[in-house]
UniProtKB/TrEMBL annotation:
Lineage: Bacteria, Bacillati, Bacillota, Bacilli, Bacillales
Domain NAD(P)-binding positions: 7-191
SUPFAM superfamilies in the cross-refs: NAD(P)-binding Rossmann-fold domains
Protein name: NAD(P)H-binding protein
A UniProt-annotated Pfam family: NAD_binding_10
Species this protein is from: Guptibacillus hwajinpoensis
Gene Ontology terms, MF aspect: oxidoreductase activity, acting on the CH-NH group of donors, NAD or NADP as acceptor
Length: 205
């Protein structure tokens, strides 16, 4: 498979990259700082900016699927880059995108009709990051692409250990956390198995 990864130097993206290279996929990445990549062998590396459509076009050439593990980092990069990604997908003929979101944009299990970040379930003091991820969800949902948004709750650094639960559109009951390793494991599993097309997926232990 030809896989294009955004956020490949990040906590989740770097672990998705490792799995894709391990299984001998053709992998390309777009990164601002190539020196931060944990793996370089077997990877086509394009240095550039996700907000530059020409850079995204160059890095995604020949891709079958996009994976975005971009973080919010107190910016609007997520919401600003999504129209660019959708434009590039159309031009390149890429039909599938998997992104890493946040549990805040899942449906509330306690307050019907609202998102978790708007409900009493949310313990976050700020909703800025959730609103950025919500903007991405709304744009993807209006598009024609085959999207999946993996929505982890509290995300401590850690290896994959298994035993996590997933649920469409909701966070698994009493889910409190999920490691970066297991989140990356599930992103890669969804890439291969395609179980949740055009769905948000909550993930937690």
């Amino acid at each position: 498979m030809n896989i294009f990864i955004l956020g490949a130097t990040g906590r989740v993206g770097s672990k998705v990259l490792k799995q894709a290279v391990r299984d001998h996929h053709n992998v390309s990445v777009l990164v601002r700082s190539p020196e931060k990549l944990s793996i370089k062998g077997g990877v086509t590396i394009v240095e550039g900016d996700v907000l530059n459509e020409n850079d995204v076009m160059k890095a995604s050439e020949g891709a079958d699927v996009m994976i975005s593990a971009l973080g919010t980092d107190k910016t609007t990069t997520l919401s600003e880059s999504t129209p660019i990604l959708l434009s590039v997908m159309k031009k390149q003929g890429i039909k599938r995108i998997i992104t890493v979101g946040t549990a805040g944009i899942l449906n509330s299990g306690t307050d019907p009709g609202v998102y978790r970040f708007e409900s009493s379930e949310s313990k976050r003091k700020t909703t800025r990051a959730a609103k950025e991820h919500l903007a991405v969800y709304e744009m993807l949902n209006k598009s024609q692409v085959e999207w999946t948004i993996i929505c982890p709750t509290y995300l401590p650094e850690g290896d994959a250990r298994g035993g996590y639960r997933v649920e469409e559109n909701y966070l698994p009951e009493d889910g409190k956390e999920i490691s970066t390793g297991d989140t990356a494991h599930y992103v890669y599993q969804e890439l291969i198995e395609r179980n949740h097309i055009r769905k948000r997926v909550g993930i937690a232990y």
